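Continuing the series of single-chain predictions for the mutant panel. This is the parent chain; the variants come on the following pages.
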Amino acid sequence: MASATSTHWTKKRMSWSYITYLYRHSWHSMPKAKEKRMELLRERSPLYHARRIASPWLLIHGDADLIAPIAQSEDIRQEVKRKGGDAKLVVLKGEGHIFRHPGNLETVLSRAREMADENVAAAVK
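Parent structure:
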């Protein structure tokens, strides 16, 4: 059973203002020197690690995301495919960084199940 503290924490974590705070705080806490900042961003970016991942990717991105540009997911998909991997991109209309629309949530679950089924079937053959 969740305690009052953990319930409060969950609600706080889910609020848009709190997510915005975390984003801004993490940006302002980054190193001041441009080289160090770019090194840290590169280290955290999935794009720079895409070439090392052999597993299939399912990228899901909202077309109204103001935190992570959709171009990032497109670039990751392109890089994974360029390296011979499997990557699919699902773009959710009207969604931001957090998915809230019930129809889109159904799409996410459906596409994840499809991809899992495809990969399990391929592994069994």
